[in-house]
Amino acid sequence: SPPPYCHYPGYCAFYEECGRNPTVVGSLLPPIIPCLNYSRARALEGEHYQQLKKVCPMLDRGEGSTTACCSIKQLKSLEMSLMLSKAVLMRCPSCADNFAHLHCINTCSPDQTTTINVTRTMNITTLGIVKEAVVGYQAYLSTSFADKSFESCKNVRIPATGGYAIATMCGRYGSALCTAQRWYDFQGDSSNGLAPLDIDFRLIPEGVTEGIPDGVVPYAGRALGCNEMTPTGAEVCSCQDCQASCPVVPSPPPPAEPFTIGGVDGYLVLCVIFLCVLILAFLLFVTCTDKNSLATQEFLGSGFRAWGTLVASHPLKVLLASAVVTAAFATGLMHIELTTDPVQLWSAPNSRARMEKDFHDKHFDPFFRTNQMILTAPGRPGHFYDSLLFGKQNFSGIIAKDLILELLKLQRKIQFWSNDLNRMASLKDVCFAPLNPSNPSLTDCAVNSLPQYFQNSVANLNAKVNMTELGVTKEVDWRDHFIYCVNSPLSFKDITDLQLSCMADYGAPVFPFLAVGGYEKEGYTTAEALILTFSLNNYPRDNIKFKVALEWEQRFLDIVQEYQKSPGNPFTFAYMAERSLEDEINRTTAEDIPIFMISYAVIFVYIAVALGEYTSFSRILVDSKFLVGLGGILVVGCSVLASMGFYAWIGIPSSLIILQVVPFLVLAVGADNIFIFVLEYQRDARRPGEKREERIGRVLGNVAPSMLLCSLSESVCFFLGALSTMPAVKSFALYAALAVLMDFVLQMTAFVALLSLDARRQDGNRCELACCVTVKTTAPTKPNEGFLLPAMRKYYAPVLLHPVTRVIVIVVFIFMFISSIYLMFYVTVGLDQELAMPQGSYMLEYFKYLYAYFEVGVPTYFVTTKGFNFTSIAGMNATCSSVGCDPFSLTQKIQYATEYPDLSYMAIPANSWVDDFIDWLNPGSKCCRLYSIGPNKGKFCPATAFLCGQKCMKTPINGVLRPDKEQFNRFLPDFLVSHTHTHTHSKVTCVSVLLATRFMAYHTALTTSKEFTAALKIARELAHNITLSMRSIPGTSQDFEVFPYTVTYVFYEQYLTIVSEGLFNISLCLLPTFVVCCLLLGMDLRSGALNLLTIIMITVDTVGVMTLWGIDYNAVALINLVTAVGISVEFVSHMTRSFAMSIQPTHVERAKEATATMGSAVFAGVAMTNLPGIVVLAFAKAQLIQIFFFRLNLVITLLGMAHGLIFLPVLLSYFGESVCVRACVRAWARSSPNPDTTPHHPVRTPHH
């Protein structure tokens, strides 16, 4: 036999329990320690053997052949200790088996003395008997066993947190810095709350003998890989917990390579080729056909001539009738609804995102309202802290006790009341309270901040205590607790002697990315920002509590803004409330109304001044057209009011963008028609014997077809634009279409009547503003052409239509067109949310802080609809991620996506309520228990009750616990109401069947509209892939679906289709411009085609300039592009018709005449009407107005003017329709003062 206390096979170092370890306090389990007892291993039989076989099956050698160094009591204590550890590790049976393997060897191995070395004992007295107990020993392990055990456990997850189980078992190091040695060191530390004594684990590499006591052999048993089944038949660990179990998943394809040809930008190459082809075609062009018809013009001209004469003869009656009709329409304004909800404004009720949002909000609570502060302390010095437990740590300036206390003081201040519930209503009446939603107190409200790690307690923050660790005694304080909690946010007690909980006072964990920001990887102590978030419930807008929530948020903003101005404020911070976006948009709209008013006033003054004739100083008040200009403005205003009133009658809501854009659009269109009509009247001479009314009718007959051409094209264009699926675009198009149509109708009635009254006044030489005052100076007999018409006739038109200039113009504009086509491919799609804010808004600072300091993006839910059988084993396996689950389950596929965050935009994998339910049912968790005696015997026993000795389910042999259908339906309701489940972020809605469930993951931090849109697209692709997999499960309905949902999707969905949507809408707008032009020009297809081509070039060039000037393409830009088509019609169609009706003999001469006569009217009526008003918009505060109204409308106007007054005349001089001799004679005859006379000059045959 060996000498005493020798390391020898078959001998024990200790045996039986001696009592409690007096040096260990605050342990989760009684710290029972063994008695020092050097003796032979005991042979086991009967109950003793069965207990060993149950707890340590790896030591079983068969009954009668099994020896061990532990008593029954020791086995029961070991079983209880392992049960707590297995509750964390049980998702991976081989990991739990390896963990138990180690502690079974240390406690029960028959060769105990060969693997351990007792280093410290002490005498303890139990029942008056003094015994020598072991309080410390060395355990020798081979690195092969230790490393493989660690590898099997290091990736095991805790579903409720998305983190790793190893993080809770490695002390200061967390999961990132944990190693096998550090893992074992934590297990052997008696201060961890589980170990009853100190164990010094020595990990010895193979072949090393130095420093090992004689007779000691490092334990080198076989550790299981996580992808191996256990000897008892338990399944391999799941892919989520074991990388080796994962199937080979191909990497997602990289983003598509840019389109290139020969290494050069492919779009550039194609555009250069297209440019060359167009220029070559132009140089080789030969005029082809010669055709024209004046029948349509004769019909329209005679009709409008008769109408104009009739209206001019009864102006007061017409004005009265126009006022009555306008008033009848406008009374609908009493019922107008103004849409301000961004969701209703930009997302159609039948859009996919809107329907998914409605489904989510119906089955779950609407996404809670967020009120947030992000606080920094720039320039404040940090400090190093030498922690007893966590070593030397670098603390930034913001992670300081005084600042945390200041934040807590501010947090407590933001609790106030409202009277809207007929009683004092505080935060608790509207807050999001996940653990007590029915009757919450203030401490139940979900407030996430760093002070929540201390339960918002000043006493906890100030707590400090001396602690001894590995023979070193130091003071531990709030910093040690903070370090522990950010790495183990679900812990109910830290590992320090402070023994404080990490859970928030409302009972849920505060994950570090919700408390601090601006850190690298997991360096939470170096964070640069503190985050304070109040979450409120979201209510329908007609709910009284919605108003209470709005009042709370307003008071929140007031307090924060007041605090920001206080001199003692140590923070630099940004803030927002849920209402802030809508508030700021509405505020800036109200503030910019004066800018729009000034813009309209400038346009009005210009019109009033520019319409006058001014033949002499003495006749200024006679020849001015102030009242005519005012009348034209009133006609525009009445048409807008009539349109808005009509749609209010039929229940189509309006919006702020309609109030801003439609008057501007109608004014641009209406002013052009006013100028054309008035200038034509001023340039025309009354024929002998012709009455004033007849002259007005004749002039109207000349210009009204052109006015009809433009107005009808624009109106049909906008009506077709109403086919858009975007509510804002649709309502704008409807309002604009009717407003343009009403404007034309009122111009043909009220404005003609006003001009008739003004002409009567002017013919009587009466002053405009003093009708009773007359002047003696008579009007000149020669028509007044003004300044612009002679200048364009004498200088501009000849230079523009010079042979050399014409070639240059065509080449330059073709180059512009092709360049814009190329630039179109690079226009940015989207609208970054900060652009919706006015300059100087506090929200701009918030977005800046948000992008700088937030480490994780918005949460996104993967929602399942009804039709999936969760009660089947296959159904559970398809949605879980623990042992026995499908490697391509719902949660596992999301996990795969998070491994490629740059491509998937997924940062944190989804939690699964199915995993939580299975863990809750597991006997090892002690969560699901039944009453064992009493009247409720067999019923579910809540955690607070006693007499609950029965488990809901038995431990499965293979480690894969799955309830059957009856058990699933029986226990699921209890699971849903238990507080354990409310710590997760999954949710279930059920009645008799599961109607909807959701699994919450997190996006990466998204900053731009492009990233938000890409995240939505990828999430939908992932959800579709999951849907197809789950539909293949037997019993699944084929209409079952999984879809992603987060609060931002409803805004960014439009950008998935806005390019095709825009092409569709603009194409619909372009179609009527061609059709109407052809019809009203007597089936003149060539003129219609040239008209259409020029408008297309204006639109394309506008998009090209958008790319150069940084104007993003979005719904607001699309509205302006649709408007651009309408304004382009004004620039182009008048000129095209004037050319078509010209009787000059050559193309060039006809182009000169059209440029001089109609070009001058278009320049004065469209360009010079729009430009002054547009320039005023540059002074608006709202960035949206500056970018999408000032910049974009300036681009549209300048490009329209350039194409209409430069390119189109040259284009018509080359390709315009020819006029035949018979048409010239008929046109000349109709314009002759005496139709019976013959012309005094020969009519030349036009050149072809």
Automatic annotation (TrEMBL):
Family of this protein: Belongs to the patched family.
InterPro entries the record matches: HMGCR/SNAP/NPC1-like_SSD, NPC1_MLD, NPC1_N, SSD
Domain SSD: 592-757
Catalytic reaction(s) noted: cholesterol(in) = cholesterol(out)
Transmembrane spans: 267-286, 593-614, 626-650, 656-679, 699-726, 732-757, 803-826, 846-864, 1063-1083, 1089-1109, 1116-1136, 1156-1180, 1192-1215
Lineage of origin: Eukaryota, Metazoa, Chordata, Craniata, Vertebrata
Main location: membrane
Keyword DNA repair carried by entry: no
Keyword terms: Cholesterol metabolism, Disulfide bond, Glycoprotein, Lipid metabolism, Membrane, Signal, Steroid metabolism, Sterol metabolism, Transmembrane, Transmembrane helix, Transport
Protein name listed in UniProt: NPC1 like intracellular cholesterol transporter 1
Gene3D superfamilies: Multidrug efflux transporter AcrB transmembrane domain
GO MF terms, alphabetically ordered: cholesterol binding
Gene: NPC1L1
GO CC terms in record: endomembrane system; plasma membrane
Record keyword Isomerase present: no
Bilayer topology: Multi-pass membrane protein
